[in-house]
């Protein structure tokens, strides 16, 4: 019995010592400066309002920075909320590791399919011990833009050369601009031939057949898109000069003397240059 009591006492002392050591280990202080810290910064969290029918090529940039002393692991970048589908992460949406002081940009685009104000949450998951899920609300607004036909510009200069009532009985410029190209040949061929003869065109009948219906011809199988070859039209084509040289037989009137656009074309939809204020 004595031996058993001594063994139990030793076991009790060993347990007390182990608990004391574990308690001491848990009480070791952790330097907060050695931990990673996530910071999310954005100059603005809202997109400018725009017309839905025209679209927007703007992006919003959010900077994710490690302001702590340890390496920050970003495990997930995603969009959440009811309107998340109206926004797109176009850059910086993959997992990453950031050393202390380093940052990365997350770029968002606002691409709604319906009009109105939309909002979503940019969610960033990381190993920041005090903020493992950082959320930033983003928003944008668009109005529905209803298109209606008010003019026709399938082939440049046709409105300039042909849209006038002087000397042409029954011609109505507004009716022409609102008409469907499907009726052009039957309705306007005689009129076009009259005007073509008046401006010195050598073959009014053949030229009228080339110009009508008033549509931009596109050949999807062509190797080159070029207005002069009737295979489409590049933004840089001098389409007005091409059209004038086809319709007008007077050499002095075969150019508008404008050889290039005065503003650079955009690289995203709708591609045309921004208008002058």
What would a concise description of this structure say?
With 277 residues, the protein is an alpha+beta fold. The chain has helices spanning 2-26, 158-162, 173-178, 184-198, 204-211, 239-247; strands spanning 38-41, 50-51, 59-66, 72-80, 87-91, 96-98, 103-110, 116-126, 133-143.
Strands, helices and their partners?
Elements: H1 2-26, E1 38-41, E2 50-51, E3 59-66, E4 72-80, E5 87-91, E6 96-98, E7 103-110, E8 116-126, E9 133-143, H2 158-162, H3 173-178, H4 184-198, H5 204-211, H6 239-247
Parallel strand pairs: 2-9
Antiparallel strand pairs: 1-3, 3-7, 4-6, 4-8, 5-7, 8-9
Helix pairs in contact: 4-5
Describe the structure.
The protein has 277 residues and is α+β, with helices and mostly antiparallel strands. It is elongated, with a radius of gyration of 35 Å. The relative contact order is 0.10. Strand 8 (116-126) and strand 9 form a beta hairpin. It has six helices and nine strands, in the order H-E-E-E-E-E-E-E-E-E-H-H-H-H-H. Residues 1-6 have low confidence and may be disordered. The termini are far apart. It folds into two domains: 34-143, Immunoglobulin-like (Sandwich), CATH 2.60.40.10; 158-253, no CATH class.
State the end-to-end distance. Answer: 103 Å
The gross shape turns out to be: elongated
Number of domains: 2
The proportion of residues forming helix, as a percent range, comes to 10-25%
User: What's the arrangement of strands in the largest beta sheet?
Assistant: 2-9-8-4-6
Tell me the Rg in angstroms.
Answer: 35 Å
Write down how many β-strands occur, each being a DSSP E stretch of 2 or more residues: 9
Please give the CATH architecture of the largest domain.
Sandwich
Give the low-pLDDT segments: 1-6
Task: Briefly note the CATH topology name of the largest domain.
Answer: Immunoglobulin-like
Strand proportion: 15-25%
Assigned CATH class of the largest domain: Mainly Beta
List the total number of helices.
6
Mean pLDDT: 85
- What structural category arises from helix and sheet content? alpha+beta
User: What's the name of the CATH homologous superfamily of the largest domain?
Assistant: Immunoglobulins
Q: Tell me the quaternary state.
A: single chain
């Amino acid at each position: 019995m004595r031996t058993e009591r001594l063994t139990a006492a030793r076991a009790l002392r060993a347990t007390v010592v182990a608990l004391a050591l574990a308690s001491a280990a848990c009480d070791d202080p952790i330097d907060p400066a050695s931990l990673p810290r996530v910071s999310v910064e954005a100059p603005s969290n809202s997109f400018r309002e725009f017309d839905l029918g025209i679209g927007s090529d703007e992006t919003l940039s959010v900077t994710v920075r490690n302001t702590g002393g340890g390496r920050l692991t970003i495990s997930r970048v995603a969009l959440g909320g009811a309107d998340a589908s109206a926004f797109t992460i176009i850059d910086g949406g993959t997992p990453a590791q950031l050393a202390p002081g380093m940052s990365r940009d997350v770029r968002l685009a606002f691409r709604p399919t319906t009009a109105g104000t939309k909002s979503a949450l940019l969610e960033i998951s990381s190993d920041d011990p005090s903020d493992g899920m950082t959320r930033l609300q983003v928003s944008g607004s668009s109005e529905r833009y209803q298109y209606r036909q008010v003019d026709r510009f399938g082939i440049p200069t046709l409105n300039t050369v042909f849209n006038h009532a002087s000397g042409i009985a029954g011609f109505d410029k507004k009716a022409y601009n609102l008409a469907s190209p499907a009726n052009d040949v039957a309705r306007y061929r005689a009129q076009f031939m009259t005007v073509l003869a008046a401006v010195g065109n050598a073959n009014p009948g053949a030229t009228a057949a080339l110009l009508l219906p008033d549509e931009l011809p596109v050949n999807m199988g062509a190797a080159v898109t070029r207005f002069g070859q009737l295979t489409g039209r590049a933004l840089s084509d001098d389409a007005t000069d091409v059209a004038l040289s086809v319709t007008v037989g007077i050499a002095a009137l075969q150019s508008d003397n404008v050889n290039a656009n005065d503003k650079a074309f955009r690289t995203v939809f709708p591609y045309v240059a921004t208008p002058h204020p």
